[in-house]
Each structure stands twice: as structure tokens, then as C-alpha cells.
Amino acid sequence: MERPNWAPGDIDLERPSVARVYDYWLGGAHNFAADRAVAQKTLETMPELRGVVLNHRAFLRRAVRYLLAQGVRQFLDLGSGIPTVGNVHEIAQATDPGAKVVYVDIDPVAVAHSRSLLGGNDHVSVLQADVRDWTGVLASDEVDKQLDFDEPVGVLMIALLHFVSDEDDPWGMIGGYRDRLAPGGFLAVSQAGYEADEEPDASKEARRIYDRSVTPMTLRDRAGVTSLFKGFELVEPGVVRVPAWQPESPADVGESGQRFPGYAAVGRKA
After folding, report:
1. DSSP 8-state symbol, 251
2. Could you tell me which of 108, 142, 145 has the C-alpha nearest to residue 126?
């Protein structure tokens, strides 16, 4: 396969990645044949999956706007992925041009494109790192340059934590970021999951394809997502299906929102 001029030289073109499969589902162009094959196969099994991904993206926009309304002007976007329309800095800087953002992702394509997109924006930095290494992320030059942890920071974990297994201790990871936050800081999470015996066969099959080809996923129910917010006070409406978190209109939720395969919430550190 010919390597695109935007692909870093050390990328394995034959191995799908979380960020690039997600980019394909969002309609992006920065993915390889291997990513498209897996993404399309899962869509054939679960056609509604593209809408699921778009709902997580819409939650990101609503959460950032909510945090801006609370006075937050600093954001740490963990597992930020490949840039698409409606990025955190675009939303935040439309309200305050001085708003600061650090994007963190482990995928070198995501990082390369983020840096290219953000060239010249002094209020945004991009870090290539494993978000599970919270000590390394928080000690990085990129975070040190942009974020003042004496002031409120919004930590964003959008469509991220289903890639962090229980064995990898997401509670400890979140606790590491939480302990660095000043009072008034926030955590926003969206996470794939169902209640017990609720997952349809199509979703199970799509997940088997994804787990085998890309990386295993860990689904969590409402109680499991709630457990991630230790040390935070949940804001209204608490942990709900992704489309139901402060929707822009009731029509955005609909009947399908009650069966949506994932949860979202925002918590504030007291």
C-alpha cells in the first residue's frame, strides 16, 4: 500500500487503530484501507453505529458549552482523536479567544493532524501520550505550558473509557487527574454500555469484530459509569443515555435515546 504523504513513517498501514476507525465513522478522510475494512464490517452488522458515534461527538459539544457557561476556560481533552469539525478549541475560542486546550492521544496520525491544524494557535497544544499514564500527561511540557491547575480545568474523556479495562484501573487513572484539579474543575465522560441483558445480538457481533480487529472494549452500565465519578458532584441530569444529557431539544432524544448504547455525565469537583 502506498503511504499517504500525511501518514508518519512509523505507522503500520495494515493495523487498524481506534482513532482512524472512529475517523471513518465520522466521515473523515484520514484512515487506511485496514481501518475502513473493520469500520465497514461493523457498520454492516450494526448500521446505527455511525449515529452512535455522532451522538458522542454531539455530547462533547454540549459538555464544552456547559463548562464554558460555568466559567471554565481551560480544557484537557484525553483521547481526543483525529481532528474533525467542532473541536474543543473551536467551540471554546468562539466564546473566549483566550481559552486554552491540550489535546492528548496515543495515535500518531491523530497527533500529526492536530498539530497541522493548530499551527499558529498559541493557546492550544497537542501531546502524544497514553492517557492512562496520568503522571506523565500532567508532567508534560504541553500541559505545563497551557493549563493553570490553580484555576478550574475541564477534563474531557469522550468515548474513551470503554477502551480502558477494569484491569487498567480507570478509577485510579481518573483519580490521578481529579486530584490535580482545583475546586470547580470538571470531568465530562461518555462511555459505551448497556444495562444487564439489554445488549442486542447485532451489537454483540459488531463488538466481537472490533475487539478482534482493533482493541477490546469494556462496556459499563449506569452504575459502572456512576462509579467513575468518585470525588465529583454530578450535575443535572446525572448519568443518562448520551442523547439525554442536556439535549438541545426533546426531539434530539427520541425513543431511540432511551435505548442508546452508552451513557454520559458531567461532574464537578467540590
Report:
1. G
2. 142
Amino acid at 234: L
Could you give the 3-state DSSP secondary structure of residue 98?
A: coil
List all residues 6 or more positions away from 60 whose beta carbon is below 8 Å from its beta carbon.
86, 88, 156, 158, 188, 190
Q: How far is CA 219 from the centre of its chain?
A: 15
Cell 463548562, located at residue: 67
CATH number of 18-268: 3.40.50.150
DSSP label at 216? -
d(CA 109, CA 194) in angstroms, rounded, equals 31
Over its length of 270 residues, how does the chain's per-residue pLDDT go in tens digits? Answer: 555 555 555 566 678 889 889 989 988 888 888 999 999 999 999 999 999 999 999 999 999 999 999 999 999 999 998 877 679 999 999 999 999 999 999 988 888 878 877 878 999 999 999 999 999 999 999 999 999 999 999 999 999 999 999 999 999 999 999 999 999 999 999 999 999 999 999 999 999 999 999 999 999 999 999 999 999 999 999 999 999 999 988 777 765 566 899 999 999 999
> How far apart, in whole angstroms, are the C-alpha atoms of residue 173 and residue 182?
17
Query: Hey, is 108 helix, strand or coil?
Result: helix
| pTM value > 0.90 | yes
Residue 89's CB is within 10 A of a number of other CB atoms, namely 22
Q: Take residue 102 and report the three cell numbers written for it.
A: 491540550
All structural domains of the chain with their residue ranges? 18-268
Count Cα atoms within 13 angstroms, Cβ side, for 4: 13
Contact by Cβ (8 Å): 147, 180: no
